[in-house]
Each structure stands twice: as structure tokens, then as C-alpha cells.
Amino acid sequence: MFFVDTIETTGLGNRSHPAGGERTAVVVDPARDIDRVIAAAVRRGVRISHVVETHVHNDYVTGGLELARVTGAAYLVPAGADVSYARVSVHDGDRYEIDATAGLVLRALATPGHTPHHTSYALEENGTAVAVFTGGSLLIGTVGRPDLVEPRLTERLARAQHASARPLAAELPDATAVLPTHGFGSFCSAAGTAGESTTIGEEKAPDEALTRDVDTFVADLLAGLDDVPAYYAHMGPANAAGPAPVDLTPPAVADADGIAARLAAGEWVVDLRHRVVFAEGHVAG
Predict the structure, then answer these.
(1) Is the dihedral of CA 164, 102, 56, 91 positive or negative?
(2) List of residues 6+ apart from 195 with CB closer than 8 A
(3) 267, exposed or middle or buried, with CB in 10 Å at 0-12, 13-18, 19+?
């Protein structure tokens, strides 16, 4: 028996996925706040044996390196990714045992397009794929955008997206759950996604990567791309260098005198409340 959980970061439109059996689990594309992942593993009563990345992310700082360090898990990153830390280099077709008792194996599937090194992972139970973690490759009704790495590579990566989606649909059972990292409001999605879940079979009708010829698909994909958020320029390099350990200690409550002292020292106060609430009363300045 296997499980797949979803940990959602709604503000970024991203999802991480712990998955495994009764004893051990893998975590795919963990977000920075790894306390949520560890809590999910504790609730399941499993040990995290593997942490995997589908690609070097451009829209958020990964928690993968830190999660692997804290748990002692193997850290799997696509072989083509240019990173500055020790990892297990993943190649197309590589297989990793996740939970022997449950017959769970993770199989790497090269799916370049969102990035040149992008890799999806099929979770197999006793040899049959039950879920596929598609990262920024095959999303719900669309694919991940191909213009986040290098402008000169955009059209080439768009064509690679089309080519990568086809084998997923052809080789995996229709009932295989498709579990992307992006979509759900993420700027890494090439178009809006509709729905919360999907399968390989359900994607064969609406997903443009599976229904259109490559030239039409690429032309429409490129025409629909929006501006890249400015902060993306900092995320990729941070993830490639290896994020420093994160301090997840809850912030201390500040009183009026403390805020006044901070303002006097030249610090900023950022008020994150709704503008209507803010208008009713806020710290001056």
C-alpha cells in the first residue's frame, strides 16, 4: 500500500509531494519551510529516505538540500543541473527503491522543456506506475513555461516540452495520477490550470501538448507567455549554489516601544494586513 500527500504553498502556486509506504518515503520538490514536510512524515510514521528535485527551480528557494541534511536522506538532482553541492546525479531510467515492503520504486524519466535538465519521476508499485511527479513538465491542461532559463533557448525548450509530454502519455497507464509542482496560480505555468487533480488518461483530451502538432503548439505557447517576475532572477542562482540552512524559529512579538526603536534605527515595518484593516489603524511611517 502506498500514500501520496500534497503540501501546497498557495501564495506561489506550488506543491510538494511526500510519498511512500508504511516505513519510508520520498519527498519531491520540497519547499523552503521543511518543518511542514517533517510534520507530514511524523504523522505518517515514516522515515524520509530520499529527497528529489525535478529541476533547479526559478520561482522559490528549495528546501531539498536542507531536508536531506536534516534527515540523512539521499538527495537526488538531475545530472544535467549545474549545482555547487554534493548530490546523487539522476539519469533517465535510473531506479530508486523507496519502500521494499510496499514494492515501491521511483523511476526517473527525462522530460526536458521547462529546463534543459528537467526530470519527472514515476512512482511504481510492484512494477506498475501509480503516480508521476511531473514538476514543470506536464501540468493540468498545459505545461511549464520554457522561457525561464535563457531567451535563446526558449523555442528549443518549447519544442522539447512537446516531445517530453508524448512519452509520458504513451508509456504510463491512464490511471496514473499526474502530480505537478507548478500550476495552481504559479507563474511557472505556461497557461492557467483548471482543476486540482488529473491523471494521464484525463490529460489526453485537453492538454495542448498532447493534442496539437508541434509547430502549432510552440507558436501558441510562445505567444501566450507573460512577463517573468523580477525575483526569478535570484531564485535559480540561489538554488544552484545551495541555500543556507533556514531558521524556522517563530518571530518574537514586538511591542509599541520596540517598533518605535526599530523605526528610529532606520528599519522598515512591512504591514501585511488587508488594506481595509490597514486603513483603520497602523503604525505611522
Answers:
(1) negative
(2) 140, 141
(3) exposed
Cell of 101: 515492503
pLDDT along the chain (285 residues), means of 10: 93 91 97 95 97 94 96 97 95 97 96 96 97 94 88 93 93 95 72 74 87 92 88 91 90 87 90 91 79
Distance CA 94, CA 96 (A): 7
- E-assigned strands of 136-238? 177-180, 198-199
| CATH fold group of domain 3-241 | Metallo-beta-lactamase; Chain A (3.60.15)
Going from N- to C-terminal start, the domains of the chain cover 3-241, 253-285
**Angle 159-163-167 (CA atoms, 0-180°, nearest 5)?**
165
pTM metric for this prediction:
0.87
| Calpha distance 56→246 (Å, rounded) | 18
- Residues 6 or more apart whose CB falls under 8 angstroms from that of 249 comprise none
State the amino acid at position 7 in one-letter form: I
Phi, psi (degrees; rounded to nearest 5) at 111 = -135, 65
Look-up of cell digits 507573460:
226
CA–CA dist 219, 215 (Å, integer) = 6
